[in-house]
Amino acid sequence: MTDAALSADQQRPAEPAVLDDVPGWFWDQDRHLFDWFLGRQEKAGRSGDLMEMGAYLGRSAIVIGSHLQPGEAFTVCDLFDSDAPDDENAAEMDMSYRRTLTRTAFETNYLAFNERLPEIVQAPTSTLGGGRVAPGAFRFIHIDASHLYEHVAEDIQVARTALASDGVVVLDDYRSAHTPGVAAATWEAVFNHGLRPIVLTDSKFYGTWGDPEPAQLDLLARRGTLPHCDISSESVDGHRLVRISGSDAGADPFRVSRHHARLAAEAEHRAAEEVAEEAFRAAERDRETADRDLADRRARAAERRRPTNVAKRAVGDLLPPVVTSAIRRARRG
Ligand SMILES: C[S@@+](CC[C@H](N)C(=O)[O-])C[C@H]1O[C@@H](n2cnc3c(N)ncnc32)[C@H](O)[C@@H]1O
């Protein structure tokens, strides 16, 4: 079937009711930490732009965008349905995103939770370099686009220029077995380009080109206050860093989407319809069984009323049992 053959309803991306309805790779532990970093900046009266490189269907962008303050801009850069700039990146896109990713689906998801779309750059993240983003204007940048070394190393340099001195950069998949390029680019930035680790989670590296200590002390002060979370501190070649590990359990859920009430009512309506349909089908089955029983009873009664059977019964009733069995024996013989 071609797209043209699909109805408008079938072509429309599904609207999410809750953040978990948006596919992606953004888990509660990091959602909680994004909220914490962004909220901490806001409480301190900090203002600055926000950026995400690699948004996929919007799962993390929705959360970042929910922190946008008046006067700030949120830039999202992703290829969405466009071609990748090189073969390796194209292979990465084909393997992980092409079948599911469209810009329309991203926009539908994003607008389900936020009032306005971010500024969308539908292009390779490499186009953000060369003066396209204002130097020092950003307070928070999430790097989660291509996971190939050359791309991530370039994205880190864009972030370095774009971030304000106390801005926070987050790198996804800095330690996954299938993304050695991110690990290489991340630690290269730490050892050679002045990036300072703040905190590491199972999936993400949080760092700054400013002073990591105030955020680290605030995080360490939360030790023992987060259920299911272990917060510890250690040093890597003189770089102090905080580690957060543990389960996602206990994190407050993200607020529901603007479609939640309608989708819940529709789901309730569908469930009620299914119950009514099942009750109707059960009544039908009962009626069919009753009809079959009645037909069987009638057939048996009709059988009993057949003249030969009536005669047999009469003979059986009238002749003495000895004669009846003698007749039966004679018939068998
Ligand atoms: C891992 S996904 C992003 C996941 C998303 N942040 C989330 O939390 O669900 C990576 C995204 O990067 C995009 N991407 C891959 N290579 C890119 C490139 N060179 N420039 C811009 N975007 C790219 C893909 O289209 C995909 O949407």
UniProtKB/TrEMBL annotation:
Coiled coil: none annotated. Residues 283-313 are annotated as: Disordered. One of its GO terms (molecular function) is methyltransferase activity. Pfam families: Methyltransf_24. GO terms for biological process: methylation. Keywords: Methyltransferase, Transferase. Residues 283-306 have a biased composition (Basic and acidic residues). InterPro entries: SAM-dependent_MTases_sf. It comes from the Bacteria. This is Class I SAM-dependent methyltransferase. It comes from Kitasatospora purpeofusca.
